[in-house]
Amino acid sequence: MQLQDIGEFNFIDSINSDVINDASTVVTGIGDDCAIYKANPEMEQLVSIDTMVEEIHFSLRYMTPYDVGYRLMTANLSDIAAMGGIPRQVVLSVAAPKALDVAILDEFYKGIKDQCKLHHVNILGGDTVSSQEGIVLTVTIIGEVPRGTAVLRSGARPGDIVGVTNYVGYAATGLGALSYGYDGYDMTILGHQRPDPQIELGQALRMHGVTSMNDISDGLASELHEIAKASGVNIVIDEQIVPLHEETYTLAKSLGTRPVDYALYGGEDFQLVFTAPKELEDTLKKIGQITIIGQVLEGNNIVQMVTKERKIETLEARGYNHFGN
Amino acid sequence: MQLQDIGEFNFIDSINSDVINDASTVVTGIGDDCAIYKANPEMEQLVSIDTMVEEIHFSLRYMTPYDVGYRLMTANLSDIAAMGGIPRQVVLSVAAPKALDVAILDEFYKGIKDQCKLHHVNILGGDTVSSQEGIVLTVTIIGEVPRGTAVLRSGARPGDIVGVTNYVGYAATGLGALSYGYDGYDMTILGHQRPDPQIELGQALRMHGVTSMNDISDGLASELHEIAKASGVNIVIDEQIVPLHEETYTLAKSLGTRPVDYALYGGEDFQLVFTAPKELEDTLKKIGQITIIGQVLEGNNIVQMVTKERKIETLEARGYNHFGN
């Protein structure tokens, strides 16, 4: 059955179930001109918008519609995590060709709904329109953070330590293994297909007093540059202690590439990179899933890495740039 | 200059000016993973999302990029108006081909920014991505309304009166005149190109205690059906008192069409249609720009019109349906 067979209004009816995962904040959900929700008066509000375009950000030849929906939500939730916030509400827009099989959209929505359910986030509205060609998915996420505590990119100070959560270069390893058709990369392939946002770690890091934070969507090098630029500092990291998964080492060996490059330029890990006062180092390590990989120096937007050969390598800000050539 | 020449990050920098029109609610604007804003603790929050697709909702052959941006914001602001709310924040997403002339996007943004400025709304974020073909614009708007006072579609009660603001069928008249190349339709052509949301009237109607409200984006017949369905009532209106502009009568005469059909099926007026207790009739008329056109009856989702010939005509819910044939 195609989208044009059921019409816009029936389609909206069909997605209006399993969308409220925390009823305490919802006054009126999908179905009126606006949804109505309650903001916690002790909190400041966070908002972010993300769009994924077919054949630019995803291809249904390589990803299931479920995974596309799941990952779109991950990208949005990760923006809230990067502020140390708590995700609350989303609204979404789908532009799709009239001839699209409704089963594909149902799978998109299932991926979106499952990820929202995992994180107790409500879907409060949607706009469904036809496109001339290709699918364009947009999600706006609204979250909360206690007043005055959101972690910006601009708070890094010389002397701070630099840390990351879990493994970096993980999703890029899975993507690489998939593109070469290699076996034995189950963990990182899953990491590529179904990345998860680090919401709890983001809140824990915020409560412990980290000074700046970013989620790693465009590769570690690019995210470090954003912190360095926003904070007016330099950053230096140590190649030897960047936490890479064993599958990353295996793939790099097979392909003759440098393992750390998957972390620096790979993107879409949705882990967190942060800076914190040096005296927090032991406390932060006790959270678990945290590795300290470098430090913040006086300077102005230079990011460097001490290589295994103990040489200084200056890292470029190159990540994924949607309009670059 | 094309979008690909300046790159995503420079483009975001270039739009990050003239976007804060009410600084009192903004903690951190564009530039981090999320924007941060303050919600008024006395208020409930409203949210809505709208998408416009090139060659589906607009064509740059018939509209200027400025007018497209202006009207997209009108559609969003109108969703807040329809709840009796106060618009506060927007975030927007633009998917556009790499080869798009940057001047066109600048004009889109100018239309969006001017309309936001008029209504003291902040632009708190944006995502700019490349598309394979065509422009897709999405705006999420966040507003506020005093707790428990938002006007839903579901509150119409038998015995209520039905009213509209200003003229209906106005934008459709302008569109019709434009498509035939007729002169002498300056007012309605402007109404088609630069419609405005009825935010102040929406708040006034809310404060006076109207029982249901909708904005007229898909034609009066479709909006009345939405109220009738959500409220579980019938509605009857009187053709003779539907407020039409003189240009609508003139165009209908030229084309041999029925004037009221522009109001019933024309759409994109962004006026408000509402129901209210009968005893409010005189009070509401004193607001000005208000016409009482009918009444609410016991029943279940039947919408009828008493024609000039004093016959009963049952109105279909047909409006613009994005996936219909």
Describe the protein:
Chains A, B: It catalyses: thiamine phosphate + ATP = thiamine diphosphate + ADP. Two copies of one chain form a homodimer. Chain A has 325 residues and is α+β, with helices and mostly antiparallel strands. Chain A folds into two domains: 144 residues, 60s Ribosomal Protein L30, Chain: A (2-Layer Sandwich), CATH 3.30.1330; 154 residues, PurM-like C-terminal domain (Phosphoribosyl-aminoimidazole Synthetase, Chain A, domain 2), CATH 3.90.650. Helix content of chain A is 34%, strand content 25%. Chain A has ten helices and 13 strands. In chain A, the strands form three sheets. Chain A has a seven-stranded mixed beta sheet with strand order 8-10-7-11-9-12-13. In chain A, β12 and β13 form a beta hairpin. In chain A, α2 packs parallel to α6. The mean pLDDT of chain A is 93. At the A-B interface, α1, β2, β3, α2 and β4 of A face α1, β2, β3, α2 and β4 of B.
Topology:
Two copies of one chain form a homodimer.
Chain A: H1 3-15, E1 26-28, E2 35-37, E3 43-53, H2 65-81, E4 86-96, H3 102-118, E5 122-130, E6 136-146, E7 161-165, H4 170-180, H5 186-193, H6 199-208, E8 212-215, H7 220-231, E9 234-238, H8 246-255, H9 259-265, E10 272-276, H10 281-287, E11 290-297, E12 303-306, E13 312-314
Parallel strand pairs in A: 4-5, 9-12
Antiparallel strand pairs in A: 1-2, 3-6, 4-6, 7-10, 7-11, 8-10, 9-11, 12-13
